[in-house]
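**Sequence, structure tokens**
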Amino acid sequence: MEVGAEGFARRLPRLRRRILRAAFVALDMEFSGLHSTSLQNNEPSLFDSPAERYLKARQSVQRFTLVQLGLAIFSKENSNKYVVHSYNFFLFPSTLGIRDVEFTLSASSIQFLSHYGFDYNKFLKDGIPYMNEVQEKILRQHLLADSWKVFSTNNADRDVLKKAIGEVTSWIAAAAEEETMILQDLSGYHMFEVQLVLRQALQNVWTKPLGDKKLMVKKVSPEHRQLLENSSYDHCQKKLILLAARGFTNLFQTLVKAKKPLVGHNMFMDLMHLHDKFYRPLPESYEEFKRNIHNLFPVIIDTKTVTKYMQKKCLFPRVSSLLEVYAALCSSILNRKGPPCPVIALASGCSRYAEKKSPHEAGYDAFLCGSVLLLSAHLLLCRSTDDAVEADPSFSQYLTVVAEHVNKVNFIRGGVSSINFSGEDAPCCHPPALVVHVRGWPGLNETQIYQEFKARCRFDVRRLSKNQFILLSNKYNQLVLRDYRHHPHLQVSVYRHWRHSPSVNCLLQISSIVALWSLFAFALGGSPSC
């Protein structure tokens, strides 16, 4: 089900109820870009520690925005059956009372999403607003101070406001008390901003939305105006404005309150955007970010971490994409032992995904994430014991069998295998690093070294010293050592810290100098006097 700004407020109460009743919630996001290429040394690297990668990703998250967020709400029925309500939310940053929000578009990301049918008109024209706590505080201060200003730099927005205000000021001079007029074609923020500006400028008007983009303006006495402002019939109350401006953040706060298990796939960037866009701007400290996320969502399950484990322990096929993982788990070959897998049924109104695959549509990928969790957990449960598994395993049993993977989010190409949001990060077991010693090839840089070796294996390269480079890979071809044994300019060997580290070499040189001077001093001090 697709949800935009037009219908979000109407659906919000039902969405909240479904989340509070759910067994768990799966999530996926699409962005206007992933990694900013305009920032120096911002590409992910195998040399990155989690803190270094976080700082790189933080810069990108601050530049890019969310264009679509998918939620799949999984509810367990009486039998071993889960009903799924899957939603696509088109999002657009809130601009009501906030200085203009800037974000970057990546050409490759735009092309990628366009290839999979993403509708940018819905993102731009019907995107649900959202804001974090800092932005909400600014808006609240403007509302409480009754000092409303229109911050939009969009000429179309300003034209709408000027037209509406011009019509009212022309009409009110000759209007009698209790006389009304209707303003047309006001939607979204325009409806609120016109009311706020009119009420602030004119003490003898009252406004009321009529629906269908119409706004009634009535001329009233100042006394009558004061009575109306203190009534529950005021459709421009500050709390209602805040509710509308928060938009999707209202649903995010429900997710936080519900504390349901949150499921995703390769969800490190998803969690960073959740924090930055709906909670607070990302902190500089990696450890603070981890603590905040764990407080918001105490149970996180990354299906990428689970499937990597299954590939090692369960002879699970080495497939990479989420759709391929889902297809492999649905295969009867993997599920010969134990009771049938849980039934996963899409709710009425969300059944399109049962008929058509829609990869890289956030709601569909969220549906796949939750399904992969259930099918993976069922498979692991069946293989974890020789005893018969009951025909209707509870969701708590599924959580128990994946407990060692809870709060461990996959870390792509880095110094650890996963980020542990409830403990210490697990170190990664890379193959031994290689060191390249350069002779007779002046001016060689990291890019040239990468080009030299990329045909044999994908290495990340870092300069070690003037004539040495270190190579790191998830796996490398042993022939690299053999092929470069007699190379005229490049000598390749396995990296040994005690032998190749510049700091160790420096320490050894200093130690040898100190030892030599000590020996010299001893020799002089020990010689017989004349």
